[in-house]
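The record is passed on directly below:
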Amino acid sequence: MQEELKRAALEFHTAIESDPRFVALHESEKAMEQSPEVRALSLKMEAAEEAYGLALSLHDAKSPEVLAAQQALYQTKKALDEHPLVAQYNRAFIVTRDLEMRFDDILFGVFRLPSLSTEAH
């Protein structure tokens, strides 16, 4: 029985790794990680996050300094998210995340306690 379970788990893993949706995710992630443009935008966003955090630590949340830093962070994050490689990765991620959630529900759903939203009243 245990050997059967190991074999089934290995087959499941192999099937997932060769599924075109997961292959697309890995390929888009690799392309995104290798892109100098994406790397530069990511570093710019990290700097904007730090500037926003610093502004929050020094000023009131409604101060012009904090609002300006927040706007700069928003614009930087938007530019990163709109980059074609990042957008492609995000689309692939959503598809595979949804599949993984379905796998999780099928495999482990019976072991979960019912949530308030699913309990019969």
Remarks:
- Helices lie at 2-18, 20-34, 36-58, 64-82, 84-108.
- Residues 105 and 111 are 10 Å apart (CA to CA).
- The chain has a mean pLDDT of 93.
